[in-house]
Amino acid sequence: MKQRLEIAKVLHPSHHEGEHSLIGQTITVMGWVRAFRNNQFIALYDGSSFNTLQVVVDFEHTPEEVLKKINFHSCLAATGKLVASQGAGQVVEVIAETIEILGEANPENYSMQPKRMTMEYLREKAHFRMRTNTFSAVFRIRHGVAFAVHQFFNERGYYYMHTPIITGSDAEGAGEMFRVTTFEANKAPLTDTGEVDFKKDFFGKATNLTVSGQLQGEIAALALGKVYTFGPTFRAENSNTSRHLAEFWMIEPEVAFHDIYDNMDLAESFCKYLIDYILQNFPDDLDYLDKRIQEEEKSMAKDLRRPMGLIETLKFVVENDFERITYTEAVRLLRNSKPYKKGQFEYPVEWGTDLQAEHERYLVEKHFKKPVIVRDYPASFKAFYMRLNDTAPDVPGDTVAAMDILFPGIGEVIGGSQREERYDVLIQKMETMGVHPEDLWWYLELRKFGGAPHAGFGMGFERMVQFITGMGNIRDVIPFPRTPGNAEF
Ligand code: 4AD
Ligand code: MG
């Protein structure tokens, strides 16, 4: 291939002056056509930057068959001199001497068009949607958040731990797992009692795709001190919402000698770090997404619009403390709220039942107007591994040292807890919650030999990316969403 320059480099002001200035030099750029105006001006995009490079075509000296192939999203190489631009809107432009078409995109049968396309339509075109302004911005930011995750933990001395994707345990005890088997449907060997005989399966036992790397993360934390996982997790829950995926990525730090308060501090600073990293490093992409939302909201009723712009919201979250309340306080607050008194909540608010999305939204968006950390939930509906709290006055039942972080517009971004390190309490909880101790013998042994107080949490990576990009649907922040009824691409 010809030596090509990336558009981000060509556009960067540091390459426009001094002895290494690109201005006046003949360069080659390669990319896709975002727009072609007046048979003369190409806006060329190559992914290295949100911004396009203007390529000026010499209409009279360019062969007709090349000209007619300069279409929306066709791919080309342009060679010519880089000059300071005469026109407004760009600092530099390339005066093309030659244009070579690398990949045609005939508008007559190409499914993408240079006009507004709905998000639903674009989901069906996941092989092309990354070429749009919106999705290219989202996926550049997604990369940035992933990078910042590793940087945050690395700077603080955490070790990145790879936990298995195929496991024999249900870490959440919720039973929402995808089975992994090499048996053919209807041909699985059966036991004497007529059940599928997983002893004869590939791993010699029943296995599934992991719902969480936490339990193995705990093994690592009780040896290496501070660890985190960052990998795909799978949930066979039949939730068709804008916040659920069947395959999503989760970040799970696990820390020896942390209690629930250390856990909350770590989680809050982690959220702020990721958001701040994107504010600092992806301003062009964020700016586009911010304007896009403003545009979209013009046609919406005032009370449905966001109270602040996207960038303003992100800065607000970075600069302000999260609100911290207990579950018991949250219930009290909700029961004193206007929507509760007016009967506007669909679900009951009673101590001992889980908070529903409508309740979380009220707390975060109406009452506190900022991220909220709710802690000390009833033990009854939280996972078996969460640490049982001492009984407290004014609290009607058993609670665990659990915490959820709720974000405006998203709901739960993080769920975590201090872990139950006391063998007797843990085994008791497993038994009452129907988790078989024999399946988790190794988890129990961690409590018997060299156990330690420890805590951790899981952040839904896509939910965080959704918050940072302001995208309304979680399917639009993962390249290839897996949801009930959909595994295309
Ligand atoms: O609250 P969850 O279920 O917690 C755990 O899995 C713990 N083992 C984490 C830990 O303590 N190490 O899930 C953690 C986060 C949620 O707060 C949410 O952000 C996200 O994962 N999440 C999902 N994201 C997308 N689609 C789904 N179906 C999700 N389920 C959970
Ligand atoms: Mg949760």
Give your account of this protein's structure:
This protein has 489 residues and is α+β, with helices and mostly antiparallel strands. 30% of the residues lie in helices and 22% in strands. The protein contains 14 helices and 16 strands. It has helices spanning 7-11, 64-67, 119-123, 133-155, 214-224, 260-281, 283-297, 310-319, 327-335, 338-341, 357-368, 423-432, 441-448, 461-469, and strands at residues 26-37, 41-45, 53-56, 75-84, 92-103, 159-160, 166-167, 179-180, 207-209, 226-234, 247-256, 323-326, 372-378, 399-407, 411-418, 454-460. A hairpin with a 3-residue loop joins β14 (399-407) and β15 (411-418). α4 packs across α6 (260-281), α4 (133-155) packs across α7 and α4 packs across α14 (461-469). It starts with 6 loop residues before the first helix and ends in a 20-residue tail after the last helix. The protein binds 4-amino-1,4-dioxobutan-2-aminium adenosine-5'-monophosphate (4AD) and magnesium ion. 4-amino-1,4-dioxobutan-2-aminium adenosine-5'-monophosphate is lined by residues 171-172, 212, 214, 235, 237, 244-245, 248, 250, 252, 412-417, 456-458, 460, 462-463.
